[in-house]
Amino acid sequence: MRKLLLISLGVIVALVALAVVAFLVIDPLDDGAPSGDVVSLWPEVPPAHVGVVNDEGPVELGTAFTSKVEGAVAGVRFWWTPRNEGPHVASLWSSDGERLATVDFGETGGQEGWRTAWFDQPVEIEQGERHVVSYHAPQGNFAQTVGYSGQSYSGALEIEPGKSGVYAEGAESNFPTKSWESSQYWVDPLFMPRGKVPEAAAPADPKIVDTDDFKASGYPTSADTGVPEDWEPEQTYTGDLDVDEPGTVLEDVRIVNGVLHVRAPDVTIRRVEFVGSRIDNLQANACNNDLVIEDSSFVRGDTELFQPAVQFGGYTATRVKVIGLSEGLRAGGAEHGCGPVVVEDSYLSIAPADGCPDVDWHGDGFQANSAAPATIRDTTILLNHDEGCLGNGAIFHPENSGNERLTVENVLVGGGGFSFRLGTPGRVSGLKVVADSWQYGPSNVTTCDRTTWGAGNEIVSVSPDGDISALGPLSCER
Question: Is the pTM of this model over 0.70?
Fold first, then answer.
């Protein structure tokens, strides 16, 4: 199968809160739009974490969906990016691959955004039937979101979380059946329901497993990570701070509302408190490796970072605490020379982004993208939820994103669509997933044939006193 390489992530943008909206009404004045209400899977605003795939090969991209009511599919829309050159032809398919309708989008151009085309005649479909809408991208360079686990915003249509995005390779349009890393390609059916449309089901509320007092026997907590209790900084910096000298040791300072730019190798960060601040060690497309971060805290400030506490790679984080940020730690930058990442004896408690659910928060505790080998050991990673705000995963290490191996040893995780997501070869032992903290499942592992699944991988409960009880084994499966 072709490697679909995500090369750029879009900026997170505001999504309209639709918890009380039954469906999205498309503008009836669109050229060729039929009369009557038309609903779709997603709102008019840009998709979540959309990126452009740098691949010029021809491909059919689609979305599998099921109608919850009777009605007719009147057209198709897809998220167009300027490098996605046409001609584009969209199709509606039955579940067994029969093409039911096609439409040509004509010339595409202008600003990035939704492109809409209407069939000559709406196609009647029955309640409960599975269909696929797709379009053909003859020049590739299409929109994609990797690891998408969201749901439909419409009460009339539904998708299977993590499995709705489908594709097929080929110079000619053909029925898409393949899937890759829970990717979504943002192809949307335009549906005319008959009768009353039920309200869109709100996501089930996963268990919120964290407070600042969270504890689990044998695992790091807020109390034994980060800067020591009663610690006071010797100096406070507001705004950005640069470290330019190799071998620098920066310790006992507080950084407020800034970025610590590590511009030299072999730097040590010790007992530093980052308030609304973060670390970036990739400067001028060169990574500054051998970065050591010890006994340091990252806490939420007055403004939302929408960035990880630490990036990109070539660092070791020991007894690090991340509290209240909407992204945790990131490993990446291998193409710029960033080395392996080690996270140990640390505590990460990730919170929904500011403005959620009016923004589509897609956060992770630990995320890898173009990363050298990564190791997480003796660490707690929790991804917390608010109503209508669901993050991606406590650990997200996808395949075909330039990542190498992941090693997990004695790690407690909870929260997210899937709490643990692995798509690369790896070695996993002593992984504990907090019961009922996830939305769709405790884990999504697509590389069991290339992963050593060791002892002690379990689903557990954690009592208020921190006692851990095993509820059953955590198997290596998708």
Answer: no
